[in-house]
Amino acid sequence: MASLPVMAGYLVLGTGFGMLLASKGYGVFTSLAMSVFIYAGSMQFVAVDLIANSASLIAVALTTVMVNARHLFYGISMIDKYKNVGKGKPYMIFALTDETYSLVCADNDMNSREYSNYCLYVSVFNHFYWITGSVLGVLIGMILPFDVTGIDFALTALFLTVATKQWTETKDHMPAIIGAASSLLCLFIFGKDNFLIPTMIIMIIALYVLRLLRGDKDA
Amino acid sequence: MLSKYYPLVAIAIIAIVTWMLRFVPFLLFIGRKTPKAIEYLGRVLPGAIMTMLVVYCLRSTDICGTGHGIAELVSCVIIVVLQKWRKNTLLSIVTGTVCYMLLIRII
User: Fold this and answer.
1) If you write DSSP's letter for every residue of A117-158 in order, what string do you get?
2) pTM of the model
3) From CA A122, how far away is CA A126, in angstroms rounded?
4) Is A10 on the interface with B (CB under 8 A)?
C-alpha cells in the first residue's frame, strides 16, 4: 500500500510519546490505555503534561475541548466522504485523528469501494502503529533513559509536510492562506493558550466571505 | 491528595471528550442530506486546518528568547524544501525532527 512508508512516521511519533511518558515515570499500562482509548496524537502529548502536573479534572476536560475542537472540522469535512463506508464507520469516525485525516481527506480517483477499504486500512494501521510506537517508546525510555526534548517536533513536521503537499497539489491556495492568516492574527490577539477557538470561528467566517466574493454557489 | 486513580480518571475524561468531538458532526446530519454550505466547508477546510495546525504547533516559539526560534525556522525550511524536492513524507518528517533536536542542543 502506497501510504505504508507514511505510517512509519507515526511509529516514530508514538515512540516519542512513549519516551516522554516514561520520562515522567509512567509505565506501559498508562501508555496503552491512552493510545488505545484516546488515540489523539497531540492531545496525548499535552495530556502527559496535564497528568504529570496533576491538573484538575475540569481543566483536563476543557483543555481537551480546546486542543481537539479541530476534530469537529474533520468530521464536517468527512460527512460526505464517509457516507457509505460500511460497517467500519463508527470505528473510522473514532479513529479520525490528525494523521488519518491528512491521509483520507485528499481528493482521489478511487471508486467508492476502494476508497472505503483504503480509509479503513489507513485507520486500523495508523492506530496499530500508534499503539505499538507508544508501548515501544515507554520500554525504550525505561531501559535507555535519554534526553528526548524536541521529539514532539515530529508533530509540527508532519503537519508542515502535509500542508506543503496540499499546497503543491492544489491551485486554490486561499483556504491555506486563510488558515495561516486567521491563526496568526488570533495568536497575536489572544495569546498562545487561547487562540485555537477564536481562530476556528474567524476561519469559518472568512471562508464563507470568500464563497460570497467568488459568487459561485455550487463551489 | 489525588487518588491513585487520578491518571485513569483523567484519561477517561480525555477519551470521552475526544470521542464526542469526533462523533458530533456525523450525528448532527444523520439521515439528512448534508446542506450545501456544510459541503462547501468540507471542501475548503482541509487546506485551512493544516496551516492552522502548523501555527498551533509553533505557538510556543519564543522569538525574543534564547535561540530566537532559529531552530524552528531552519527545520521548517528544510521540511518544506525537502518535501517539494523529494516528495517523500517520511523523509521530510524524520529529517526535520532530527534537525530540530540537534539544533536546540547546539544553539
Assistant:
1) HHHHHHHHHHHHHHHHHHHHHHHHHHHS----TTTTHHHHHH
2) 0.77
3) 6
4) no
